[in-house]
């Protein structure tokens, strides 16, 4: 079969639309005609990080569409179903069985390496393999192959362009609050970086009834959106040098109960930890700098916790339907963050989100 896909030829290269060959789905696979796919920071970050030998490659991991074919071994998914595609997990290892599907022992092989676990690829060009299966889907393509563990059936009345970002970005931000922190209304939460993931975290905290929510960003347009979700906005560039942590402590009555960092910037994380209340927790969800410098005395003496979080500690099979139900009920109005682009406008969408002109670009076919 033929499919039109956005290919990246090498590290840091732009997306380019080409025609590729896609395999028929195997007995354990699902073929999805992608109708919409979110553009995520992870797509842009990893395409810069991977070595040249892992290209050419098709990214995309927030696909939503309609099932065209189902392998004979697949249960629970049928032709014609509307689906959101998310990350893969084996569902068999100890981590998966204990509920931590985001920490699956096979995470790297199933989501990042560019091929199936047997070494084959789902996409080809002129007889040569193209690295694919990104998050088990590579959905920057009109057709994508997924599996029962990462294809989530949703209500056909849901707008697929709105549903797509729940496959990763919205699920990550909301899940970090609802699953990982699980705040009570009397707590305080600070979200550092309020792009799509951060705003999902703010909206989830508001839905949970958290009394004090603070949003931190250097872009006032993003802070304005966070304020509409019930947060107090803080732009660090408006404060005198050295005043940032004191301002957060002032807004949170002496220190935040919890924080979510989406920036992955070492200096921001260090200040976020300092701004925590004793026994407070900072959840780190961003992908970026690999080393941190933290005040070990502060951590120990004040019982503070810094922990990572993958995909909001979510199981997509239950979390995505739950979040979509919250949105449908008006409790999680993330649809207003979405800006749609034609699929062939992918590089324009990249430029716009990088410049901060849009929050969540979604490509539609």
Automatic annotation (TrEMBL):
GO cellular component: cytosol
Domain of life: Bacteria
Required cofactor(s): Zn(2+)
InterPro entries: ADH-like_C (IPR013149), ADH-like_N (IPR013154), ADH_Zn_CS (IPR002328), ER (IPR020843), GroES-like_sf (IPR011032), NAD(P)-bd_dom_sf (IPR036291)
Keywords attached to this entry: Metal-binding, NAD, Oxidoreductase, Zinc
An MF annotation (GO) of this entry: S-(hydroxymethyl)glutathione dehydrogenase [NAD(P)+] activity
Keyword Ubl conjugation: no
Any GO BP annotation: formaldehyde catabolic process
Domain Enoyl reductase (ER): 10-363
Cross-referenced PANTHER family: ALCOHOL DEHYDROGENASE, ALCOHOL DEHYDROGENASE CLASS-3
Family: Belongs to the zinc-containing alcohol dehydrogenase family.
Annotated protein name in UniProt: Aryl-alcohol dehydrogenase
């Amino acid at each position: 079969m033929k499919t039109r896909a956005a290919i990246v030829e090498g590290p840091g290269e732009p997306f380019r639309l080409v025609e590729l060959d896609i395999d028929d789905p195997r007995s354990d696979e699902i073929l999805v005609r992608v109708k919409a796919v979110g553009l995520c920071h992870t797509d842009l970050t990893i395409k810069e990080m991977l070595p040249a030998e892992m290209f050419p490659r098709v990214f995309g991991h927030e696909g939503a569409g309609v099932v065209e074919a189902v392998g004979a071994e697949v249960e629970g998914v049928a032709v014609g179903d509307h689906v959101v595609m998310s990350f893969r997990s084996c569902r068999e290892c100890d981590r998966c069985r204990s509920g931590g599907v985001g920490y699956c022992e096979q995470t790297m092989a199933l989501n990042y390496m560019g091929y199936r676990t047997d070494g084959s690829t789902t996409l080809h060009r002129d007889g040569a393999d193209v690295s694919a299966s990104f998050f088990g889907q590579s959905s920057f393509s009109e057709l994508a192959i997924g599996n029962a563990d990462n294809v989530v059936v949703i209500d056909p009345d849901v707008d697929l362009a709105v549903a797509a970002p729940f496959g990763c970005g919205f699920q990550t931000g909301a899940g970090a609050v609802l699953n990982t922190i699980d705040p009570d209304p009397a707590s305080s939460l600070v979200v550092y970086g309020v792009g799509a993931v951060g705003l999902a975290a703010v909206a989830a905290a508001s839905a949970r009834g958290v009394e004090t929510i603070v949003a931190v960003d250097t872009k006032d347009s993003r802070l304005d959106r966070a304020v509409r979700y019930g947060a107090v906005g803080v732009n660090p560039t408006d404060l005198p040098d050295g005043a940032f942590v004191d301002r957060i402590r002032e807004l949170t009555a002496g220190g935040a109960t919890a924080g979510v960092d989406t920036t992955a910037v070492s200096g921001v994380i260090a200040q976020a930890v300092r701004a925590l209340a004793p026994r407070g927790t900072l959840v780190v969800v961003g992908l970026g700098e690999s080393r941190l410098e933290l005040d070990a005395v502060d951590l120990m003496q004040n019982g503070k916790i810094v922990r990572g979080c993958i995909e909001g500690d979510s199981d997509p099979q239950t979390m995505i339907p739950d979040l979509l139900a919250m949105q449908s009920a008006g409790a999680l109005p993330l649809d207003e963050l979405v800006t749609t682009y034609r699929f062939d406008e992918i590089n324009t969408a990249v430029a716009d989100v990088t410049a901060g002109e849009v929050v969540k670009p979604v490509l539609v076919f």
